[in-house]
């Protein structure tokens, strides 16, 4: 009787196992290295995307508000505004009742009445429910329409005497005006009939620096205070000094004669902002930076007034309200 042989068992030799292990470790190392690099790349992209997004949001807001600067309007909620009269005319200063004095201020130019009785009056005083002005024409008792037209020629407050680095040679300086790092503007910025005063300031005294926006509502009201700066006003908290130490803002200033006086109008604003990423980038061993420049942002309302004034037309160049003047220092 023959004994049955056990089947021969086969397997990997030690050498084969070592080769397979080496191949496995090599592939794993390549995969892990790729994953680490991918994570670093994603972090770099996210870091820089956040930087681009923040500076784009800030510049878009600046563009919008510079474009609207100088706009003047009476609040839509209280229009039409009517004066009840009567007035006797002959240039006499008279106080008359009016349906709303919201956004009205001393020295404002108002369009009164229509047709043959239309005239532009300069308000000499505003009180709740009344205005005082010299009326050249007689207006009968009744609902006499009152409107406001034109714009604030100083809607972008012209640069001050120390801002030659960011304004053209020979510009007419404006006391307590804008500077190379402080933009001052005002007007019906939001198109809702409310006159706002807004300051944009670049502050790189710390590293990183800040761009903040400070707003004052109802700016025509004398005695309205400017809020103290706090962190809620920061638009950018990663600001860096610009190349060659240039300012954040520069101005194109045009002069025009207003009642025989050469008066400055800011017809273009240029903007330059340099920012860095919030997070350290190990690929460059530092913080990536970006400089964004926007040239020729035109405040269309101010430009309209300057153009009309230069052509000798009647542009209703509205004066700066005393309430805004008090906010400039």
Summarize it.
By secondary structure, this protein is of the alpha+beta class.
Topology (SSEs and partners):
Layout lengths: L13 H55 L12 E3 L3 E2 L3 E6 L11 E4 L6 E4 L2 E3 L2 E6 L2 E2 L4 E4 L3 E2 L29 E6 L8 E8 L5 E8 L17 E7 L8 E10 L2 E16 L12 E9 L2 H11 L6 E2 L3 H4 L4
Describe this structure in words.
The chain is elongated. The strands form five sheets. Strands 11, 12, 13, 14, 15, 16 and 17 form a seven-stranded antiparallel sheet that branches. It has a four-stranded antiparallel sheet with strand order 1-9-4-5, with no helix packed on it. A three-stranded antiparallel sheet has the order 3-7-6, with no helix packed on it. The protein folds into two domains: 49-72 and 152-325, no CATH class; 76-149, Elongation Factor Tu (Ef-tu), domain 3 (Beta Barrel), CATH 2.40.30. The chain contains three helices and 18 strands. It is 21% helix and 31% strand. It starts with 13 loop residues before the first helix and ends with a helix. Strand 11 (182-187) and strand 12 (196-203) form a beta hairpin. By secondary structure, it is α+β, with helices and mostly antiparallel strands.
Principal-axis shape equals elongated
Task: Assign the structural class, choosing from mainly alpha, mainly beta, alpha/beta, alpha+beta, or little secondary structure.
Answer: alpha+beta
Q: How much of the polypeptide forms β-strand, as a percent range?
A: 25-35%
How many helices? The count is 3
Unreliable stretches: none
Q: How many E-type strands?
A: 18
Q: Largest sheet, described in full? A: 7 strands, antiparallel
How would you spell out the order of helices and strands? HEEEEEEEEEEEEEEEEEHEH
**How confident overall, as mean pLDDT?**
87
**Kindly, what is the distance between the CA atoms of the first and last residues, rounded to a whole number of angstroms?**
120 Å
Quaternary state, please?
single chain
| Radius of gyration (Å) | 33 Å
Any idea how many domains? Answer: 2
Helicity, as a percent range: 10-25%
